[in-house]
Amino acid sequence: MLRSLVGSEMCIRDRYSNDQIMNQFAEFNHVYLPYCSGDTWTGTRLDKFLPLGNLYTAGHLILNTVMEDLRNASSFGQRVDAVLLSGESAGGIGALHNADWIREYVQDHMGCPQAVVKVAPEAGFYFPKHVFNYQSYVLLGKSAPPFDAFGSFYVSMIDGSFLDESCVAALGDKPGLCWDATVLTQYVETPLFLAQNQFDSNQINDILLCQKCWAESADRHQASFM
Predict the structure, then answer these.
(1) Which of 177, 183, 188, 202 has its CA 20 to 30 A from that of 168?
(2) Whole-number Å distance between alpha carbons of 133 and 206
(3) CB within 8 Å of 193: residues ≥ 6 apart
(4) pLDDT tens-digit series, residues 82-112
(5) CA 44 to chain centre
(6) How many CB atoms sit inside 10 A of residue 39's CB?
């Protein structure tokens, strides 16, 4: 396998098209990974986890197993020229968090140091720096306590998340912060192309609890919050 496109089920569909006009990656070998672990492709748990409905939350381990299978059972193990890892939403989070890992896997573990490895996370920037939930913002304005650090610690604890090694080494006793995209991107060395909607409905409506917020909202609190 000379060139590979690895991505989650929520990737933009054009990337899987064989139409060379629509898709600059049409000649790549495509590897499609359906999202099934509920942990944004970062989990490392080997046992069922009751708080998450008895899911295994082993997304990072699934990715590792897929790469091992490709290496052992396909031409991927013979030669690699270029790899693009991409995903959207949960897949975008996973692409970002596994960016340096997949580059090191291809270049070091597979012995392809010249391989070009890049990562394109879409709608996976969780969380913007100093973001706060809507209720706190209405009460306290911009002095509201930020949500991003708490959210990152919570998610990494629940999922048993794989965390970028260079980030963990740099942050010492606060490794949970490495789940935060704002923090993580300071340590990722793999080339990234980040795409993120300012009005991401999952973040604004579901995570930050402004359920009636939308891009053209006339409500002054909602408009200033976004």
Answers:
(1) 202
(2) 10
(3) 118, 119, 120
(4) 999 999 999 999 999 999 999 999 999 999 9
(5) 15
(6) 29
The number of CA neighbours under 13 Å toward the Cβ of 199 is 10
Q: Is the dihedral of CA 161, 167, 173, 179 positive or negative?
A: negative
3-state SS assignment for residue 113? coil
Cα distances (angstroms) measured from residue 143 to each of 135, 136, 137, 147, 204: 12, 9, 8, 12, 18
Q: Give me the chain's average pLDDT, please.
A: 85
Residue type, 19: D
Spatial contact of 55 and 48, defined as CB atoms under 8 Å apart: yes
Which is nearest to 97 in space by CA: 141, 39, 32, 48?
39
Q: Tell me the two tokens of residue 98.
A: 């596994």
Type of residue numbered 184: L
Residue 211 predicted with pLDDT over 90: no
Cα gap 65→37, rounded to integer Å? 14
Backbone angles phi, psi at 57, to 5 degrees: 40, 60
